[in-house]
Each structure stands twice: as C-alpha cells, then as structure tokens.
Predict the 3D structure of the following.
Amino acid sequence: MVSPRRPLNEAQTSPKSTKNDSYKSNLPTKKRNQENSNKKSFDCNQQSVMGFFYSFIIYVIKRIVLCPVNIKVGIYLMTLILFSLIKDFKIIPSTYYLAYKQNIFNKYFVKFGWGWTLAILTPFVLMTSSVYNCFNLVSMKNHLIRIFMATIFWFTFTSIFEYIDNQTGSCSKNEFKSKLLCKTNKHEWLNGFDISGHTFLLMHSLFVMNEESTVFSSWTNFYESLEKRENLESSNERFYRKAKILHNKLSPFIKFNYILIGLLSILWEVMLLSTYLFFHSMLHKLLAAFCAIGVWFLTYKNWYADKNSMLSPGLPGENSI
C-alpha cells in the first residue's frame, strides 16, 4: 500500500522550527537576566549615592552643627549682644513669623523643649553606653545620671526664673495677684523681672546634646580598638566579641539618632536666635545665658571630669572596656 503523503509545509519546517523555538524560548531568559543585572547596577548606584549623602550629612553635623561647646559659648554670647542691639534699635520689624509667640515652632517645640531634648538624646545615650560598657547596667546607669542631673538643673532654674517674675510683676487687672491667674484670664503681666527661660532652656539643651554626642566622633576608632584588644587579650576575648556584636547591630540606629540630634540642634539654634532678636531685654537674656554656661562649666568641665570623686558619673565615653 502507498503511505499517505505528508503535507509539504510540515516536512519543511520541522527541523528549523525546533531550532527557532529553542532560540525564542531563550530570549525571555536573556532579557530577564539583562534586566536583573541592570536593576542590580541601578540599586548599587542608588545605594552609593544614598551612602555618600548620608555620610555628608553626618560630616556636616559633626564638624559644624555639633562643634565644641567652647566655640559655641563665644558665638552665642556675641550673637546675643548683637541681636539684642538690633531689637532695641528696631532695625528689623517685629512682623516676621518667628516674632509671634504663637508660631508653630514656639507652640509645639520650644514650649515642650526639654521633653523633645530628652526624647532624642536619651536613646542615644542608652545605645552608645550599652556598647562601650558591653551592657553593664551599673556602668550604663552612671551615664543616665548625667541626663537626670541635666533635668534637675533645667527644672530648678526655670522655676526660679518664674518665681522671680511672679514676685516682681503685677497684672494689668489688679484683682489677679499671680502671673498664672493673670495669664489664664487673658490679661497682661507687667513690669516683672522676666529672666529669659527660653534662652536658658535652649542653650542648656544645646550644651548637653553637644557634650553627650561627642562619643560619636570616635565611633569607628572604638570598633578598631575592640578588634586589637580582642587579639591581644585572649582572656577577655568573649567580652570584646560581645561588644563588637553590639557595635555592629546598634550602629545604624546610633547614626540615625545622631542625625536627629543634629537636626534638633539646628532648630534650637534658630529658635535661640529668634529669642535674641524678638523677645526679652538684653539683661534678661544675658543672665539666662550665664546661668546655662555656668551649669555646663560646673558639670561637664568640673564635676563629671573629676575622676577622683566617688560622686562623679564620669564624662560621655568613659567605659568599663
């Protein structure tokens, strides 16, 4: 019997079609691989740009925003005198937004200024002290004592300023004898010796944040010293290894926290300059500034720096390692 004839087009395309099919099936895979490689290179470039930007921000904060307090003391006093003279001679009109007491920065930030400072600074002190004390709770407690003492000084001085103003002033309506009642009933408190609580709060906060964040300037060097000691002191190898693990785990959070401290410092300095320029007399601001400088000098330059004193909690960065 004669077998049925196969269609011409089927016979001709069978060897070529398998070749074309395999080529076509490889096309999506090649395209996918190329897209993946492009995506990876884009992600790498994006990460390198973000890394550079991140490092640049930290560098600016470290070198300019959080420069040594010794330098800031001089700058703050000079700007206080200059800006107070500008205010007294009315060179700049008081129609700017920051001249209004109810501006958003004054109402929601400076009014709760010490709370904001504690919220940003306390986690930083906790994380850094846990690393360089290898989670030794007794040693970490000493570093938190500094924050507690700063809170005591803030409350004491602002309360004294308020008391002096309350004792020396009077209400525009005679029936109200206290400043609180006068202000609550929407009257004006007059002729009080009103030492600037905002000047003290902002300078005190800036000094404390500056001093406490100094540990970050040697953060990378600290890790390198851990590695060296781990190799040299075999008996404490586990101790240093634990500190290195803590350093690696907490460093991203510490860096982010450091940036937040820098941003809050910028805001506090802007508000400090606006206080100089629009509020209080020069004498009231100078007295508050000298109180803040005095507290900083008494604590960080004397009390905390005294290594022989049993009552000294130590300076930032002092550690059991």
User: Anything to note?
Assistant: The mean pLDDT is 83. Residues 8-65 form the longest helix (58 residues).
